[in-house]
Write a sequence for this structure.
């Protein structure tokens, strides 16, 4: 019960339709990246943990690379965020560098070892996706799709693609917070 | 790494006539596996095979992961079942995600069902009855309400399978009646297979109640 109440409290920090929490994080290549640098563009955020089996699947046999290839462009940026605490699965920067090479990830991996940014977005799982529109508003926060480990229940549904398509055509996002799946984000506490 | 979760597989014909598969699972200390609704992260444990129609779950426990992430699942020893038409010799696979606070590792165990030893039959029968005996409750467009008689010494934990949220204050127990409403979250309709498992502790005695949504 407390978990449900606390979960609700966390969600208020990053409500759909509210301003997306700004952040300034360092990438594994030493770049400082701020969300507000990208005002005017659509920003896709991906919660990442290279040790998590769901992330391994999504980047290995799954759809992550093709989604990034499809959506990243002049007006759309993709940032991965690792909110795992030092010592926990997938939190070692070396492991993230190796993953970038192995999975040919073309976007920055930002390290959030205190978990503050993850908490501000109520990031519960890896993978979890968020979309910030060009005005800086959070318009989507939840599951990538309906196929954890590629196992779909019913017709395949890419929540990420459906949301981005809706935004492109000026339509409201049909399902803005589908329950995310995956390993828990490996927060410190 | 496979020794994190040890599995023994059996087939049993219950007094109901059901031919069930039984997975006796022992989980390494500090790790847990998941219920059919894993909670805010994780992945359900599943028993699959030609003879299995679906996995029948034991009542879960709650685990809070760092970051206030709520999970529903099992630690230590637990029995899960497969309903269907399973006989000794049939092959099944148990698959799971095992997690600890800092890491998650998927696993699976494939084997053929042994005949359940006679001395375990009555315990298994009781558990099966426990896991499958459910009260149907009517639901409204927005969810369910359940009332339970409680005392000052009661504690209640509940576990929904659907994506629903509890309405009202935290169930701080006092003598009398505990009423809890659940409302649907988002636009996901409750299917007939959705249920709520309630663990009611009253003066050291535990009762498990299972409620299923009826149309």
């Amino acid at each position: 019960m407390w978990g449900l109440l606390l979960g609700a409290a966390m969600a208020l920090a990053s409500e759909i339709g509210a301003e997306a929490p700004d952040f300034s994080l360092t990438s594994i290549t030493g770049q400082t990246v701020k969300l507000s640098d990208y005002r005017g563009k659509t920003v896709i955020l991906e919660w990442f943990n290279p040790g998590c089996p769901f992330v391994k699947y999504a980047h290995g046999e799954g759809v992550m690379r093709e989604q990034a290839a499809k959506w990243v462009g002049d007006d759309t940026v993709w940032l991965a965020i690792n909110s795992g605490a030092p010592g926990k699965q997938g939190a070692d920067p070396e492991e993230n560098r190796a993953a970038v090479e192995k999975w040919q990830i073309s976007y920055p991996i930002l390290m959030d070892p205190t978990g503050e940014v993850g908490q501000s977005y109520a990031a519960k799982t890896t993978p979890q996706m968020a979309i910030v529109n060009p005005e800086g508003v959070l318009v989507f926060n939840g599951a990538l799709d309906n196929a954890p480990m590629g196992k779909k229940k019913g017709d395949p549904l890419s929540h990420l693609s459906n949301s981005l398509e809706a935004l492109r055509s000026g339509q409201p996002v049909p399902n803005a917070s589908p329950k995310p799946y995956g390993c828990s984000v490996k927060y410190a506490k | 790494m496979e020794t994190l979760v040890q599995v023994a597989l059996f087939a049993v014909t219950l007094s109901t006539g059901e031919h069930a598969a039984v997975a006796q699972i022992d989980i390494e200390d500090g790790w847990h596996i998941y219920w059919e609704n894993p909670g805010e992260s994780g992945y359900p444990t599943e028993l699959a095979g030609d003879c299995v129609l679906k996995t029948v779950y034991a009542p879960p426990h709650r685990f809070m992961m760092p970051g206030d992430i709520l999970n529903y699942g099992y630690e230590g020893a637990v029995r899960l079942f497969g309903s269907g038409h399973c006989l000794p010799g049939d092959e099944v696979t148990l698959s799971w995600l095992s997690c600890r606070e800092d890491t998650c590792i998927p696993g699976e165990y494939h084997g053929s069902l042994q005949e359940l030893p006679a001395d375990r039959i009555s315990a298994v029968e009781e558990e099966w009855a426990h896991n499958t005996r459910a009260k149907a409750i009517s639901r409204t467009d927005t969810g369910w309400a359940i009332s339970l008689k409680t005392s000052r010494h009661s504690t209640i934990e509940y576990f929904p399978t659907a994506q629903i949220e509890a309405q009202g204050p935290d169930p701080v127990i006092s003598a009398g009646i505990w009423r809890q409403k659940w409302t649907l979250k988002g636009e996901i309709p409750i299917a007939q297979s959705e249920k709520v498992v309630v663990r009611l502790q009253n003066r050291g005695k535990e009762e498990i109640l299972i409620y299923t949504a009826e149309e």
Notes: Residues 164-169, 184-190 of chain B have pLDDT under 50 and may be disordered.
